[in-house]
Amino acid sequence: MVGLSLRRYRENLSTEVTAQEIQERIAVGIPEAEIRAVDLKGGDHFEVTVVSSSFEGRSMVEQHRMVYAALGDAMRADIHALMINTLTPARVRETAAAEDCGN
Question: Which of 43, 42, 26, 45 is nearest to 34 (CA)?
């Protein structure tokens, strides 16, 4: 490993993950969730939005831990950066209603 940068070492160890694979992993871990994943920077920087009733009554930290748990090993090897947005269905409705009132 002498002479290899950490990033280069990680690239040699991991395979590139896709936004679709991230969605599929989260869907397995949080089955009823609505999930949107976007590749922000070529295979290792992503943004995910996860809407799930299982987030009800949980703190944002707990919600994010659920997403991390669903992603499993991908967080340790394939994903360098992940922006997570978690919402309950009720929060989505509230946000939509507020936006409707603003128009």
Answer: 26
